[in-house]
Amino acid sequence: MKKLMTLAAAAALLASMNVSAEVKAGATLVDQGMMDGRTYHQNFYKKDNCKVCHGTDTPSVRPADDACLKCHKVDKLAKKTVRKDEEELWQNPHNNLHYGKEVPCTVCHGEHEAKQPLCNDCHTFKFTKHKQ
């Protein structure tokens, strides 16, 4: 019985290594249907394109903010997300009262998984156009 359990564990390990080999061969996790991606970033989900954001085609960590900021400028985002109502002016997620423009992008936005705005940890106001 012990040998059978060891063989099952070895088979599972080999199967997981096979997935890694497939990814290294060029199929991204998005291509394989193992991970979702944002529809407006579809051009990044092509073969060997993980490095656009992650800096490598075999990513193991979240990309740094400078990867996002190559295309998305903080000042432009802050202007775009200014609240119109006088009482809500301080509720700008990209230039807020607590952190200014210093909140890392991946705190509120996830490329491959939905996230909630950091503000929601304490506040109840809504960001209707939040891209999770």
Automatic annotation (TrEMBL):
It comes from the Bacteria. Residues 48-124 form the Tetrahaem cytochrome domain. One of its GO terms (molecular function) is metal ion binding. The keyword Signal applies. It is found in: Periplasm. Residues 1-21 form the signal peptide. This is Cytochrome C. It comes from Ferrimonas sediminicola.
